[in-house]
Amino acid sequence: MLRAEARTRFGSFELDIQVQAESGRCLAIAGPSGAGKTSLLRIVAGLLTPDSGRVACGSDVWLDTSEGVNLPPERRRCGYLFQDYALFPHMSAWRNVAYPLRDLPRAERRSRAQELLERFGVGDRAEARPAGLSGGERQRVALARALALRPNALLLDEPLSALDVRTRAQASRELADALRSSGVPALLVTHDFAEAALLSDEIGVIDHGRLVQVGSAAELAATPKSAFVADFTGAVVLTGSAAPSEDGLTRVELDGGGSVQSTDALSGRVAVTVYPWEISLEPPGEVASGSARNHLSAEVVSLTTIGNRVRVGLATSQPLTAEITTAALEALALKPGAPVTATWKAAATRLIAS
């Protein structure tokens, strides 16, 4: 198991965090830029020394500021996958992978490097240099290099951010398989919740240097403990004042006008969260019959196609986003400026005290 705790200050910013990742499992630390993700990774790797802290992998203590222990990076048996992969441009793929093994005989280094390249499906690219590799191939070579020394832990810094959209889907699946089969604890940092959900077993959401919630992707999405976590997981977040209504539901008067209902029981100031795919759009005055209790008049602001779905930005009393199919878009003939009614169920409306 990899355990790390650190407290350190950078100007007005303070990192104060404790994490642990079990063998064969991946913990993702996810949050916006400037939240402290990469600083944590650098502390674990030995590239940054905190004001106080402790890092241990199994029985090996890599850092203990109270005891004066601070092993240099080369003595911490961890593999590091950098955000831009950091491959040596003048070296072939196999030489990049073999670089950490330079204390071994050349034939043994070549054999080990080739074995890892074959494992990740790029054995036939062993002689190619990084400039001649695709983004996905470069990632696999970098991952092979990170695993070359048979590390006791694996550290990954935004591992998919350097890939284009077409490459990212396949590369993410391959990386997820590699992490699950590595058998070592993995610590990954990312700003992308979807990436964290795909690659990790557990996610810790970080904000301003502190973990605000830890759980599986499903747990974070279903029961966010704050509006920040809800927003980060992709939910729409509205604000308003809640009070019980006569039908047993909770009615929320939204700031700026309009109201919605929820099955959650809360009173007072709340954050209202709903996921874009829970929201349906109808022409104004033609709301379909059904169990949906929430109806907000809106105007289309933007249309963004993502695969076979479309994200629709809406102007209401507060900004709203719906996600619909391309077929629904065509049926509604939506375009910026078009009036619509946004509709969703009370059961899909979560409330968080604020």
Protein described:
By secondary structure, the chain is an alpha+beta fold. Helices cover 24% and strands 36% of the residues. The protein is built from 9 helices and 21 strands. It has helices at 37-45, 93-98, 106-119, 135-147, 165-182, 193-199, 217-222, 227-232, 326-332; strands spanning 2-10, 13-21, 26-30, 52-57, 60-64, 69-70, 78-81, 153-157, 186-190, 202-207, 210-215, 236-244, 250-254, 259-262, 268-274, 280-282, 294-306, 309-315, 320-325, 339-344, 350-353. Helix 3 (106-119) crosses helix 4 and helix 4 (135-147) packs parallel to helix 5 (165-182). The longest helix is centred in the middle third of the chain and has 18 residues, at 165-182. It is globular, with a radius of gyration of 24 Å. The two termini are 36 Å apart. The relative contact order is 0.12. The model has no long low-confidence stretch (mean pLDDT 89).
What are the defining features of this structure?
six-stranded mixed sheet, five-stranded antiparallel sheet, 9 helices, 36% strand, globular
Q: Report how far apart the termini are.
A: 36 Å
- In total, the number of strands is 21
Query: Which structural class is indicated by helix and strand composition?
Result: alpha+beta
Shape: globular
- The Cα radius of gyration reads 24 Å
Helix content: 10-25%
User: What is the overall number of helices?
Assistant: 9
Q: Helices and strands in order, then pairings?
A:
Layout: E1 2-10, E2 13-21, E3 26-30, H1 37-45, E4 52-57, E5 60-64, E6 69-70, E7 78-81, H2 93-98, H3 106-119, H4 135-147, E8 153-157, H5 165-182, E9 186-190, H6 193-199, E10 202-207, E11 210-215, H7 217-222, H8 227-232, E12 236-244, E13 250-254, E14 259-262, E15 268-274, E16 280-282, E17 294-306, E18 309-315, E19 320-325, H9 326-332, E20 339-344, E21 350-353
